[in-house]
Amino acid sequence: MSYTITRPKMPRLMAIGLWFAVLYAVGAVILVSLAAFGIGYFAMGDRVMDSREWIRVAGPLLLLTAAMMAGIAYGFRTEQAWSRHLVLVMWVSLGLYGLVTGLTGAVPPAIMWQVLARAIVFGGVAAWYFYSKRNVADYFKALTQKRMPPQPDTGTA
After folding, report:
1. Distances (CA, A) of 81 to 7, 72, 97, 141, 146
2. Which pTM was predicted?
3. Phi, psi of 48 (to 5 degrees)
4. Handedness of CA 127, 133, 138, 139 (dihedral sign)
């Protein structure tokens, strides 16, 4: 039995997103590192903070997002079907982080609502893009099929 596996072509917007994810991951790590040395201006909304307070509130969010963005970039680059799920996990995590920091008083309520609104809107757009947009859904379907071993022909001769 002979079969050919064609390599699915990554949708253009995903290719752009891959590079954005790489740049975000690197930039967030650099930003938190600079903050650790007190280099820079730190504010959340219109509230000015010192670097320690900023790292305490924003640092975990930036590092968590950087780790997920790095995972997304890796998943896209290596054509992993799970990478689209990680995009949604990232938006849910951002929304939950905004909710928790808002409810605990670490950030003003206005910032909490902004983070939640962004997570809902961008998470919704991401869900549509990765699961409903035809060419993207077909791309991930092809990735899933590519990873599956060929099934033997069980038909009668």
Report:
1. 13, 11, 26, 8, 10
2. 0.83
3. -80, 140
4. negative
In angstroms, the CA 95 to CA 60 distance is 14
In which residue are the tokens 């280099």 written?
Answer: 39
Question: Which are the contacts of 142, defined by CB distance < 8 A and separation ≥ 6?
Answer: 6, 8
| pLDDT value of residue 148 | 55
Q: Give, for 123, the enclosing helix (H) or strand (E).
A: helix 109-131
Residue 78 has pLDDT above 80, yes or no: yes
pLDDT in tens, 36-46: 999 988 887 77
144 pLDDT higher than 90: no
- 79: region left, alpha or beta (phi > 0 left; psi from -120 to 50 alpha): left
C-beta atoms surrounding 16 within 10 Å: 10
**How is the chain split into domains, by residue range?**
12-146
Identify the bridge partners of residue 44 per DSSP, sorted by sequence position.
Answer: 47
- Closest-CA residue to 103 (of 118, 115, 89): 115
